[in-house]
Every structure is written in C-alpha cells, then in structure tokens.
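Annotators were shown the component list below and the corresponding predicted structure, then asked to write short factual statements about the assembly.
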Amino acid sequence: MLPSPSSASPPPRGGFSLALLTRNLFGRLSRWWHLCLVLIVILWLSGSAFTPRRYRIQFFKSSRPAGGPRPPPVRLPAEGDLWAGRAHDVRKAFMHAYKGYQAHALPSDELRPMTGEQINNFHGWGVTMYDSLDTMWLMGLEDMFYDTVQDVAKATFSMAPGEHAHFFEVVIRYLGGLLSAYALSEDPRLLKLADDLGEKLLPAFDTPSGFPVYGVNTATGETIHGARDGEMVCLAEVFSNQMEFKYLAHITGKSKYYKATERPMRAVYGTENTMHDGLLATMWDVNTGKPNQTHFSASGRADSAYEYFLKQWLMTGQKVSKARDLYIRSANAILEHLLYVGPHRELLYVTDLKDGAPTHHFEHLACFLPGLLALGVHTPALGLTAGERERHTWAAHGLANLCAVVYSDTVTGLSPDNFVVDRWAEVERGLWASRVDVWERAGRVGPPPGTADLPREAATEARGYSPVTDAYLLRPEAVETFYIMWRTTGDVKWRERGWAVFVSLETYSRVKYGYTSIRYLDERRPYRFDDMPSWFLAETLKYLFLLFTDEELVPLDKWVFNTEAHPLPVFEWSQEEIQEFDIDVA
Ligand code: DMJ
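Structure shown to annotators:
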C-alpha cells in the first residue's frame, strides 16, 4: 500500500516542529491534568520543604504566623536617590554576609568569611542567627527572617556538664536578639525561646550580693567565676542586663526577672560605692557587692553599664528617677575626670584612671559614649541643667569627631581598636573640664576646647596618637554614634562619615563569603584575619542601614537599642506590675 500524501511529506522543521511538539505536550498533559493538579497542590503546600532557600518566594512561606506586624517593604531605590541607594548597598552587604554564614557555618556560631569555615565561640547555639534577626526585619528581608526563626525555634540552649555560658554575652546577644525580634514581629515562638533562656540564665544572680556571676551552666544552673579575676565581676557584666530582664518581666509577667536584675541597681543608686560622686569602679566583688577602687573606665569592662543606666530609664517610660539620677551623676563624673585633650590637634578623648592616674589609652569601644551623651541631651525629660546640657553636647561632638578622624586618618579609612594619645608634660593641662573652665572664664572665644571638626592627617607621626592594636575588628561603636548624631542634629556630615566607613569596608574587608577584620590599617594590602563577629551583622550593618534610610524606622522616643543594637520598645509599668514587682517609681 502506498503511503498517504501527508505521511509521505518531509519531516517538519523549525517553528512548525515546535508547534507540533507543543501540541503533543498539551495533548499529553490534558490526559494527565488531574495528576498535574495534585502535584501543583502538593508543591504549593510544602513549598518551604521542597524549595531551596535561595529560590524561595513569598508565596511558599508557611512560617509566618497569621496576623501580626510585617517588616517595612523593600523599595528599590529610584534613579538618583542617593541615600536610598546607599541604604540598599548596605542591605546587599548584609545579605552577602548572612548568606555566607547560612551556607557555610549555620548552625555554628560564627563564619570564617575567607575560608568558609565555622567557629563555635559562643556555646554553639548559632549566635549569628540571633544577632541578625532584627536587622533582617528592619531591612525588610521577611523570608530570611522567617527562615531564621524556623532555624532558631528548635533551640534548647543545652550545655554539657562543666561548660558555662558567658552570662553577659548571652544576655546581650542571644536574649537581646530574641526579645527584639519578638517585639518587632510578635511571633510567639520567639517569646517562648526568650522566656526559656531567661529561666536558664537566672541562677547567675544567685550570689550573696545579687550581682550576676561570670558564667552559668544552662542545663544544671551551676555557676562559675571569671577565670582571671577570682570572685570579681566587671561593671559591664553587672549592669548590662536590666533592659533585657525588665522587658522580659514585662512581657511574661514574671516578677522574678525584674527582682533579680533590679537588686544590683539598688547597690549603686546611692553614692557610697562611687568615686568622685559618680564614677563606678571597673571590678566588683560578687560576694560583698563592693567595688575594687583601683580602676575607672568608660570603655572595656565598664562601658555598657553607663549606657544601661540611661537606657533602662528611657525604656521603662522615664518613670524611675533613681536610674535617671544615676546616669546624670555618672555622665557628669566621666566628663569631669576621664576626658582629656591631647597636645596635638586638640584631640578630645576619654581615657581610664589606674590608681588615680590617666593611662591616655583610648579604645574604639568608647565611641559609644558620644552617641549616649547625644541621646541624653535629646531627651528633654532627662532634666539636665543648662550647664550640663552644654557640656554633654560639647563632649558628644568632640568625641564623635575623634571617632570619625581616627578612621579617616588611616590609609584604609578604618580605625585602630586601641591607641594611646600623646600627653602633655604636665598631665593636668590636658584635663578637658579644666580647659573648658578656662575657656569660659576667658569669654568663650572660639569653639569650646576639643569640639572642632578635625581634618585628616595622613602622616602617622603627626596624628597625635599611636595605635596599640592596629586592627579594625568590624566594631560598631563609631557608626552607632554617627547614627545618633545624625538623628539628633540632622547634620548630613554624620551620614557622609558613615558612608566613608562603608566604602572602606567594601574595599578592604569584603571577602568571598562575608566581611573580615583586618590588621595594619596604614597598608594598602592589610592583613585579613578571617573572622566575622556576629556584632557586625547585629550592629555595624544595622546602624549603617538606619543612617542611610530617610524614614526613621526605629524612632528614638519609642524604641531603645540594647548594647548589641537590638531595639526594645518603650513601655510603661502598669499599677499591678508596680505593686507585684515592687518597682520604685518615685
Ligand atoms: C558588642 O558586643 C557590644 O556592643 C558590647 O557592649 C561591646 N562590644 C561589642 C562590639 O564592639
């Protein structure tokens, strides 16, 4: 039999063959439509399980509880919108860092961003996740936020016998991170975790003085003193938990959280344990609750204690006047006794006193202080006198200028972690408070001492200070201060200074999987450490992002940042809480 004409024609090519294929495909699919439908429904329902993280889209999310707030929407910057573009650059930097951690280190604590290795330096519970949650929220990264909530939701904070959680670090990073993420999202899983962790940390306060010890085993409640300092605990460790435990008491209704964290406060509301009517020693005896009066500082080992005196007052609705008074007294004492002006360039810096003498060391950590002072000045209800307001404002500006110029001086544009400032032959000549007195008596000619903007000094020998630790550890304190200065003064120079820091980070710290600390800041090719502390994601990138974002996403009168940059909401104690917790609102 002859083939029919149609079957005898040459095989179809090109568009014709595609049309035929499509027709065949649809023909087949129409026969299997019911199976296709079932497959689509299964994929839809189980999207989170089957869809790889990086491809996941909003539709497939199941982890967000119904209702509750949503993060701010991500609006891609319009052409020519300079600051929105810069904020978006920071968001991209955060995503680079977190995705590197997620792909190579999660669920370990931190990522080694050059090699992609991981490290457990905070008990192996995944500290970078906890420290990053609220940054994701504020940056509008909702999928990433809920992925991470799912990752942390299984946490048990377990610990082998003989191990101890570092109370201070766990409070400010893990507990602070959970509480802030809860406050922003109202996801009940985060509250449950925070309460669980709070319970496990409470035994740290079981000391004769009520001062928390250095370490606690989260499984057994067994405690341990810090290795080097006998039964001493440092000031920052005693007084950097009041925000977290007071907010936790408020949202759980558990008075024990409030009582534990408030007890040490009652030891310092008076002046009997202070020097110069407001300075608090760096080390304290856990048994007696008494200070070891040999060292006074506003940076390492002390810094966030002063920060929490003001911030717990702000967070709890500005009602507990004893905390406010304590802040004002201690800030005045710092300005009076720890601030010096160097003999070159009029550098204003805050240093520490050892056995009564200034060391002239300045730590990057101390760059939180100008922001704190500015925040106080910005709060009318703080009730500073006119004279105090002036001095706090001048000190804030002068110290913030120093924190900017120690970045811009170096080749890399990044600041040393610790340096020593040149000193006068007669030490007293440098004391800032005396110089301000002299300037006032002379009729206030020119700017107050140590407050002028400082031009860059490229020559290391002319800078007026020498690095002790010539390394930038991705620390946040300077950009934290730039952010507060920008919000409280509206002067765009603070934004520009923050942008310069970000450009340097991109140039020198950005590596394959994230960002790294660097050493030798005056070399064009600095040494790279291969570490990325979680505070970089919690604080440094968050403050930079907020600095460049026009909208005030975290209004300073409604939220208060803990010392790890986790914002907690301002609230008022109810009458029931005041009675049940025994809160002194006088
Ligand atoms: C952070 O963990 C906190 O800001 C803490 O109070 C001090 N230092 C680091 C970052 O430098």
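Statements collected:
1. The chain is about 45% helix and 10% strand.
2. The chain has a mean pLDDT of 91.
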